[in-house]
Amino acid sequence: MTEAFNLVSSYRKNLEMKLDPMRYEHSLSVSYTCMNLAMCYGYDMEKAELAGLLHDCGKRYSDDIILKKCKKHGIAFTPEEEEAPAVLHANYGAWLAKHKYGVDDPEVLGAILYHTTGRPDMTVLEKIVYIADYIEPRRHKAADLPRIRQLAYKDLDETMYEILKGTLSYLDKKAGKTDPMTVKAFVYYEELHKERSGER
């Protein structure tokens, strides 16, 4: 416990120096929300805290610079991600977590990698980080947040469905670019929703 606390404390100090104040506060808030969700669902709290804390570690540069860094370090990304580079901080963040912060746990790295797009059949930790990023207490712009926050502590899969549905609707209204992985994630969780609600 002491070793894990010391490690997280060192990560916090590093992030506080590298991220802008609002991004740093958001990262702390996501890490605490991840721990809350981990307690609720019987998941490893230390892993959840670490993934939540580092989920935005790659978001210290502009999208253009992050794209250049991904190319420089040979970090894989899709043509669609290059066209909508706002999601690339997740790819870069997973690389940073592994190569700069020494994280070698594939679950933690996967949670960082998929926290912006989601994916079909996510792990418990991936869902926890994705949801915590959306519902953390300092968030306030998304529609229907009080209901989503309550749902998050009842059903992770249904919460994924609701968040993905809302995200796609928002992007459609503002004519924003939608990452294909987000669409695939929505289709997956929509099917789960239909199966469980007897809509099929």
Helicity level: over 70%
The main β sheet shows up as: none
**Mean pLDDT reading:** 93
Strand content: under 5%
Tell the overall outline.
globular
Key attributes of the depicted protein:
200 residues, mainly alpha, 11 helices, globular
Notes on the protein architecture:
The chain is mainly alpha-helical and 200 residues long. It has helices at residues 2-18, 21-41, 45-54, 63-73, 79-83, 88-99, 106-113, 124-135, 145-152, 156-173, 180-197. Helix 3 crosses helix 7 (106-113), helix 4 (63-73) packs across helix 6 (88-99) and helix 7 (106-113) packs across helix 8. The longest helix has 21 residues, at 21-41. It starts with a helix and ends with a helix. The mean pLDDT is 93.
Map the helices and strands.
Elements: H1 2-18, H2 21-41, H3 45-54, H4 63-73, H5 79-83, H6 88-99, H7 106-113, H8 124-135, H9 145-152, H10 156-173, H11 180-197
Helix pairs in contact: 1-3, 2-3, 2-8, 3-7, 3-8, 4-6, 6-7, 7-8, 8-10, 10-11
Short description:
The chain is an all-alpha fold.
